[in-house]
Amino acid sequence: MLTRGSGAGEFLERLGNEALPFLLEPAPDALLICAGYDALDPDPLASMTLTPADFREAMTLVLAGFPREKIGLGLEGGYGAGACVGNSEVVLRVSAS
Fold first, then answer.
1. What tens digit of pLDDT does each residue of 67-78 get?
2. CB environment 8-19: b (16+ within 10 A), e (fewer)
3. Model pTM score
């Protein structure tokens, strides 16, 4: 579990070294990512300090280990409406490139 106030360093390190190896070994048939942006810094309920650039890096890590054509994306949370829209755009652009 990440502690309150965790930022990009802790988040990306755990994602790359713990979460992705667990999720991708053995390789699943598909990967569904329910992107909850309530970890974004401007979110009024956020307990983390992530930015859209951090989510871009996270998506880049996912794409490095799993074929993009087998990934489904969904939006499931976040209370800073403007931040959610901007962050969703960042993740979609990385996914499509």
1. 999 999 887 766
2. beebbeebbeee
3. 0.83
